[in-house]
Amino acid sequence: MTASSGLDTADPAGPELLRSVFRRHAAGVAVITAQGARPVGFTATSLTSVAAAPPLVSFGVGTGSSSWPVLAEAEHVGVHILGEHQRELAATFARSGADRFGAATGWRPGPHGVPLLEGVLAWMVCRVVARVPAGDHRLVLAEAVAGDPTGTGRPLLYHQGGFNALRD
Q: Which of 24, 59, 101, 125 would you label with 33, given CA atoms 20 to 30 Å apart?
């Protein structure tokens, strides 16, 4: 046992430890979209800038998710940075079984047929360059080919199991 935490550091780490630690990590909220026979999308807090040249991003997606079969084959994906005014949109894309592209969701086809969400802070269309196995997920690496960073507002954050706004 460590004196400061009360945790036995010799215990093997597992899924609950990872979840508990990352509940304390504030992360930006993105929605990833792709077009197959139907549009798909999911809320992601794992979006990361990987490299500037070429412009690469990464995100994780569960292989058991309803979006995975389309993402497994998609050549291009949409990456959307959500604003603090889009909590309900984030919740819709995070909820299993939700009608993510229903009437309540403003979207349009973008470059390469990728679904683009309206009202976001920024978006990119990215060409998938790799899908790397990572446990029950795949880490997707994608290169930006188009985008618009000109949306207005403040970013939406995910922290302690809920969607939050920045505070000054």
A: 24
| 93 close to 45: Cβ distance less than 8 angstroms | no
- Please report the pLDDT score of residue 1 as a whole number: 43
Q: How many CB atoms lie within 10 A of CB 5?
A: 8
- Which ranges of the chain have pLDDT less than 70? 1-11
pLDDT reported for residue 8: 53
Predicted pLDDT of residue 114:
98
pTM: 0.90
CA 69 to chain centroid: 16
Closest alpha carbon to 40 in 107, 128, 124: 107
Are 114 and 40 within 8 A, CB to CB? Answer: no
pLDDT value of position 2:
46
Dihedral angle at the C-alpha atoms of 107, 108, 112, 114, nearest 10 degrees? 20
